[in-house]
From TrEMBL, chain A:
Family matches, as Gene3D superfamilies: NADH:ubiquinone oxidoreductase-like, 20kDa subunit
Domain annotation NADH:ubiquinone oxidoreductase-like 20kDa subunit: ranges: 36-153
Molecular function terms from GO: iron-sulfur cluster binding; oxidoreductase activity
Keyword NAD on entry: no
This protein's record includes keyword Mitochondrion: no
Taxonomic placement: Bacteria, Candidatus Curtissiibacteriota
Transmembrane annotation, as ranges: none
Name of the protein this chain belongs to: NADH:ubiquinone oxidoreductase-like 20kDa subunit domain-containing protein
PANTHER family recorded: COENZYME F420-REDUCING HYDROGENASE, GAMMA SUBUNIT, HYDROGENASE SMALL SUBUNIT
SUPFAM superfamilies, per the entry: HydA/Nqo6-like
Length: 164, 441
């Protein structure tokens, strides 16, 4: 155990998705806010604060699939700053349903082509581990909250924030 | 303010010239940014950019079997997924001539009440409350300060009450698995019902405090716009009624689309809408403006002191209207839970395999429209119009005035005013960017 209380430095990031796991996370706060307040240093979470800091993280939680080069670059930056990266929810883990355009026929693809070109979409929607290394997966649409709680507790032990 | 870039060439307010970019508007649902150019004290360009990447649900749903449709369309949005489920269920039922039972309609009413309490609770406590308290985040509230501790306890109590109701009458607060075409797949247990009642009773005083808090807010921005919403005949209703407007009277649900004019916004990944060629506003403020006398009688008894403020044209009163709706949904749910039993029954069904159906409901942020054309039990064509698409043009138009009226503020204060104002509309960018309209020039 460290001499001074340590908090787990975390960030929560959303890419292409419906942000359902963000909602589940805000619902988990109903029961865990007071516990997590002492254990987590939430440095980046767009849903929770305006003054976000993107710097060295113990753990990055990443929700959503990757639809553009910009998103891929941002994800690589997050990976570079994070000791562990957790893919959260179905779109991050498998790409779907956000990746449904990967399965469109030619006629439907030509229908959506102007948008893809105008906003510089990548030809295919990618799951997170097609862009960066993922350490832990929490699947589900939305994420399986029991699995998330287990993963978080494991990480808290691993980073010496709590005793296992 | 994160990732803010601003340049000013002059500080004198009437001659101010500067460009301001907000890469990311925080504490809203989804991703949006803003570019503003000011020259000689006037806004010459202002672009609200909804920057979520599209997921093409109106294309993706084509060819899908009818029973799978509501759960797929739920994935348009995490926070209001249960509104998308209920709206597409209505579209499927109308298309195929399925009539749900009276019990189903009561259970759906409880499901949407749960959504309203949870979703408005998230917006008011987690997104908007820090603005009222001059804090950056709910994470900064101090549990050793009795007043701030009360806010935190209220936050989680109200949200949890909504969450429990959504779980009892939907199976989950997000992408509820029990809601289905024709009825329900699972029914609440006696323990679920007792738990809901107890928590709703516990949340009620917190909701009253929330109404008081937002009624004391001094934030003001007046917009003499047209307020539009689905309004119940005999009660305050989110699922059934007719479209009412503050300027034009009443429209049948099925004819709603004909009055909307689609607007392409080339720098935004979402489409906007006008109503009879004018900007308009949907959401809690519109509903309370149009139907305050239909709120639950206990709600009126307790918060009647603020209802005289409505109809209100102060956009910030959308927050107050949401707080009033939380109390109404608690009271309406307690009424329904106290006077009904919920017995398992099979979902209503049909042999019909073709048809066109329109679903119109009030989602937390306003009127939601799903049109589904069904052929041989599969979706041939879909159109979905979401609340934020309808408010988007108003937000942008009003931001021009807001920036010009606050032009002498420093960049951080101005950015804060912009964000606070956008948050008052409670926009949902995931919803607004789900689909595609091609009309680029």
């Amino acid at each position: 155990m460290p001499d001074t209380p340590k908090k787990l430095r975390v960030g929560w990031f959303s890419f292409t998705c419906c942000e359902d796991s963000t909602i589940i996370f805000t619902e988990l706060l109903n029961d865990y806010f007071f516990r997590w307040k002492n254990l987590l240093d939430i440095r980046y979470a767009k849903a929770l604060r305006t003054k976000n800091i993107l710097d060295q993280l113990d753990v990055a939680f990443v929700e959503g699939a990757i639809s553009s080069q910009n998103q891929a670059e941002k994800l690589k930056k997050i990976r570079g700053l994070s000791t562990k990266l957790v893919a959260i929810g179905s779109c991050a883990v498998s790409g779907f349903p956000s990746a449904q355009r990967n399965l469109f026929d030619q006629a439907t693809l030509s229908e959506i082509k102007p948008i893809l070109e105008r906003f510089s979409y990548t030809p295919k929607v990618l799951k997170v581990d097609e862009v960066v290394k993922v350490d832990v997966y929490v699947a589900g649409c939305p994420m399986d909250e029991k699995k998330f709680l287990e993963v978080l507790d494991t990480l808290l032990v691993e980073f010496n924030v709590i005793v296992g | 303010m994160s990732e803010l870039l601003a340049h000013r060439s002059k500080s004198n307010m009437h001659n101010s010239s500067f460009d301001l970019t907000l890469d990311q508007i925080t504490k809203i649902e989804g991703a949006a940014g803003l570019d503003v150019s000011v020259r000689g004290g006037k806004v010459v360009d202002l672009r609200l950019k909804l920057s979520e990447y599209k997921r093409f649900y109106t294309q993706g749903v084509r060819g899908k079997s009818v029973p799978a449709v509501p759960q797929l369309l739920a994935r348009i949005c995490g926070t209001c997924s249960n509104a998308h489920i209920l709206c597409s269920i209505e579209a499927c039922e109308k298309a195929l001539g399925i009539v749900p039972s009276a019990q189903t309609m009561i259970m759906r009413r409880l499901a949407i009440n749960g959504l309203m309490i949870r979703d408005h609770g998230l917006h008011l406590y987690v997104f908007a409350l820090p603005d009222l308290l001059g804090k950056d985040s709910i994470l900064e509230l101090d549990e050793n300060n009795p007043k701030e501790k009360q806010f935190l306890e209220d936050t989680f109590c109200v949200k949890k009450a909504g969450n429990m109701l959504s779980v009892a009458f939907g199976g989950r607060s997000v992408h509820a698995p029990y809601l289905t075409i024709g009825g329900f797949l699972k029914f609440p247990s006696a323990d679920d019902l007792t738990g809901c009642k107890n928590f709703l009773i516990k949340a009620r005083p917190a909701a009253q405090r929330l109404v008081k808090l937002f009624s004391d807010s001094q934030f003001k921005f007046y917009d003499q716009t047209n307020f539009v919403g689905l309004i119940g005949e005999n009660r305050y209703d989110f699922l059934e009624g007719k479209i009412k407007t503050s300027k034009d009277g009443v429209i049948e649900e099925a004819n709603f689309r004909q009055h909307l004019e689609h607007q392409v916004i080339p720098y935004s990944q979402a489409s906007g809408y006008k109503f009879k060629r004018e900007t308009y506003m949907v959401g809690a403020l519109a509903r309370v403006n149009l139907a305050k006398e239909k709120l639950n009688e206990n709600t009126i008894k307790n918060v009647g002191y603020v209802l005289s403020r409505f109809p209100s044209t102060n956009v910030f009163d959308n927050n107050l209207a949401q707080a009033i709706e939380i109390l109404h949904c608690i009271d309406d749910s307690l009424l329904l839970l106290g006077s009904n039993q919920f017995n398992p029954e099979k979902p209503a069904s049909t042999q019909k395999k073709d048809g066109v159906g329109v679903g119109v409901i009030e989602a937390p942020r306003g009127t939601l429209y799903h049109m589904l054309e069904i052929k041989d039990n599969k979706v041939a064509r879909a159109e979905i119009i979401v609340p934020t698409g309808q408010n988007q043009i108003s937000i942008e138009k009003n931001l021009v005035r807001l920036v010009e009226e606050n032009i002498d503020l420093d960049k951080e204060q101005l950015s804060h005013e912009i964000e606070k104002f956008v948050r008052a509309y409670d926009p949902c960018i995931s919803c607004a960017t789900h689909f595609l309209k091609i009309n680029f020039h």
